[in-house]
Specification:
heterodimer, A: 320 residues, alpha/beta, Rossmann fold, eight-stranded mixed sheet, globular, B: 401 residues, 2 domains, seven-stranded mixed sheet, six-stranded mixed sheet, 14 helices, 40% helix
Chain lengths: 320, 401
């Protein structure tokens, strides 16, 4: 379709006008998941089948008898999105081979899941799908907790973050462990395309969706998704906070394409992580020392990334 | 009859697992999605061979768990593919969540189950605890008594599942090991094409098609959930008729049919024994020694467990002085603990039939149940019947207390 014709998305003028994600859904005001899905479908176009894990997007967009999906969409359960997508993709292949589907017809298969459905309960099915090599693009929208059930910690929740199961008390103060490096785990499967993306950098994100869909094999796009309800920030600042995640280096936009690693959004001068943390109620209990600790971890990660690239793409922190 | 003359058969020595694989091949399945588990594994091994040597044009999805096996089958079926899976025991339990979803999404998936005991303690051996746990999942459940019947039942299963009045998944169960790994002569179709005249590849259900986008698996709130689930109640009712039709048409097309309950000597008997699966063969083998011991016993085997064939069970009960029900599973915490016995008693009670039902728990974890055991069970029941004795607790046959 025409939506797939553009090589890259650079500016807002490259964004297709066609809408496949209808308004009227029940996502929270200011939820960035809606932004991600809307742009995802603009890239994918109508010849697309979406498999959605249980989660915020699923419950908010399909209260029977209504739906926001103008492409075929299926929800089966929480932990099996990648397995269902594997079945769909295999069926397409065999039905084409048996002449029951037009072999020239390209059908995108997209698995869409949150962090709970990917980092935790869905990891096994995801690993199986990647290992078997199904041509499916797996999109992870990562809001760093089980937001749909009411803000419980997941394997993605960052250290120190308050959630309802990592409350701030006199003994424990938020999550004890660090965020699981899910994209590195996915990359270790040696699939052809892995990327991290940010709705605050929509053109970069859409380009990655496009590359993922054009990959001959499994692809994985990990998108940060600031959650106004769970992270506790003013709904108007979803995209501001998204951008801050990258500007502070806490979220680095990269891609690994056929084993070539590239940072797609270089940050020559980083903002301090304090700017990102101070905007969020889930971190309101943090001391200066805690923030320092987070800053150190971010600095180490920036170093690691710069070494991988072979030059400084994530620059030093510069107070602005 | 004209059709019959066109059908050619090949007679092969097959285990029930292999018979099931041959049937799946002859059904021209598009997708096999399965995970190894004893005693099911040789089903998918055989299917893998069929695919590897080009006898079956299907995609094998080597999933990483049974949960994913059924999930991938759901995805494939939702695309309009004819999907097949096979499992047993722990695998069936791991699938349990997805069993309800396959039926709730009304997808005509067929699955074979080589029935096996459940852990703990872990046991690879046969009983029906796994299959009986699926009672309330809204799957049609057939239980075969021979390798031939398993072959025929898998073909019938697609006929039932894909009928637009039903659109429910169908399970074909049989004894783990006692059937899954024992060989019998089985007639299989010489030409797969003949099977497709009985079960043409016609997509009768709603599918994921970019040209006609639909939302599958939407979230239902209290204003709709109940009505959607009630449609499954109706579908199950319809399935009861469709199972009979599918069997009758199979008989007309291929010359073999089974009915809902297979019976031997049940008319004018002193009492009748009712069971399911391969143990029926043991009962028939024991009939002679039972007769020599002066008891006229009839034998019946239930071929359909869901929807529960209450009409046939009533007919059997009406001509029986007593029913001896042999169960190979336990409902823990219930005095009458056999799953089949409990269904039978429920049907008899609601129709005002008050005959003794003697429930024996046998063959748990594949504890041997021989012809001699059959004689003793029938003799003990007959003694109780003569005394006018009823039981309010299952008899755990042969257990060391």
């Amino acid at each position: 379709m025409s939506q797939m014709a553009k090589p890259f998305f650079r500016t807002v003028y490259d964004v297709p006008r066609e809408e496949y994600f209808a308004p009227g859904h029940g996502l929270c005001a200011g939820c960035t998941a809606g932004t991600i899905v809307k742009l995802l479908l603009k890239v994918a176009g109508p010849n697309t089948i979406v498999v959605n894990a249980t989660g915020c997007v699923e419950v908010s967009t399909t209260p029977y008898p209504y739906t926001s999906w103008e492409v075929p969409w299926i929800h089966v359960a929480f932990e099996n999105t990648a397995a269902v997508a594997s079945g769909i993709e295999s069926a397409i292949r065999v039905m084409k081979a048996k002449g029951r589907l037009d072999p020239s017809k390209q059908i995108n298969v997209i698995a869409l899941a949150g962090d709970g459905g990917t980092y935790d309960i869905g990891l096994q099915a995801l690993s199986g799908m990647l290992e078997r090599g199904h041509k499916v693009m797996y999109v992870l929208y990562d809001n760093e907790a089980y937001m749909n059930t009411g803000i419980q910690r997941s394997g993605s929740t960052p250290e120190f973050a308050w959630t309802t199961t990592t409350p701030v008390g006199s003994v424990l103060r938020g999550k004890v462990q660090q965020k699981k490096p899910i994209s590195d785990i996915v990359a270790a499967h040696k699939i052809p395309y892995v990327a991290t993306a940010n709705p605050g950098y929509f053109a970069d994100m859409m380009t990655k969706f496009k590359k993922g869909l054009e990959t001959n094999g499994p692809s994985f796009v990990h998108v940060i998704q600031p959650c106004t309800t769970g992270w506790k920030f003013d709904p108007r600042y979803g995209i501001v906070l998204s951008r801050l995640a990258t500007e502070t280096g806490i979220w680095i936009n990269w891609e690994l394409e056929n084993e070539q690693f590239r940072v797609t959004v270089p940050v020559p001068r980083r903002k301090p992580v304090r700017d990102y943390i101070k905007m969020q109620g889930r971190f309101s209990h943090l001391t200066d020392q805690d923030i320092e600790e987070i800053q150190k971890i971010v600095d180490q990660e920036a170093d690691r990334i710069n070494k991988m690239v072979g030059r400084t793409v994530i620059g030093p922190v510069v107070e602005q | 009859m004209e059709e019959l003359t066109k059908v050619e058969w090949v007679r092969l020595p097959l285990s029930t697992n292999y018979a099931v694989a041959y049937a799946a091949k002859d059904a021209d399945i598009d997708i096999v999605s399965a995970y190894p588990i004893t005693p099911q594994t040789t089903v998918v091994e055989k299917l893998s061979e069929f695919i590897a040597n080009g006898e079956l044009k299907a995609q094998m999805i080597h999933v990483e768990s049974e949960h994913s096996a059924l999930s991938a089958a759901i995805g494939a079926s939702a695309m309009g593919a004819r999907a097949f899976t096979a499992t047993a025991s722990q695998g069936l339990e791991l699938m349990h969540e997805v069993l309800h979803i396959a039926s709730g999404l009304r997808l005509p998936i067929v699955m074979s189950v080589a029935a096996r005991a459940l852990s703990a303690p872990i046991s690879i051996w046969g009983d029906y605890t796994d299959l009986m746990n699926t009672r309330d999942t809204s799957w049609v459940v057939l239980i075969a008594g021979s390798a031939q019947e398993a072959y025929d039942s898998v073909l019938q299963a697609y006929k039932i599942a894909e009928d637009s009045r039903v659109l429910l998944p169908v399970m074909v169960g049989y004894d783990g090991f006692l059937m899954s790994h024992t060989y019998e002569p089985v007639s299989v179709l010489a030409n797969s094409g003949a099977a497709l005249r009985y079960i043409p590849k016609k997509v009768t259900w709603a599918t994921l098609n970019p040209e006609r986008p639909i939302t599958v698996g939407a979230m239902a709130n209290p204003d709709w959930y109940y009505e959607i689930k009630y449609q499954q109640v109706e579908a199950m009712k319809a399935a009861y008729e469709v199972v009979k039709e599918a069997d009758a048409e199979y008989g007309r097309t291929f010359g073999r049919s089974y009915g809902i309950i297979e019976e031997t000597d049940t008319d004018g008997s002193d009492l009748n024994v009712l069971t399911y699966g391969g143990i029926y063969g043991t009962l028939l083998e024991s009939s002679e020694i039972i007769r020599k011991n002066g008891i006229k016993a009839g034998f019946a085997r239930l071929r359909l467990f869901r929807p529960f064939p209450y009409e046939e069970v009533l007919k059997l009960a009406e001509k029986s002085s007593a029913l001896v029900v042999l169960d190979r599973a336990i409902t823990y915490g219930m005095p009458i603990a056999g799953p089949l016995a409990r269904e039978v008693i429920s049907v008899l009670y609601s129709h005002g039939i008050n005959i003794p039902v003697y429930n024996f728990i046998v063959g748990i974890g594949q504890r041997s149940f021989t012809e001699n055991d059959a004689l003793k069970v029938v003799s003990a029941s007959f003694e109780m019947l003569k005394r006018g004795q009823k039981i309010d607790e299952s008899i755990y046959w042969g257990v060391r207390e």
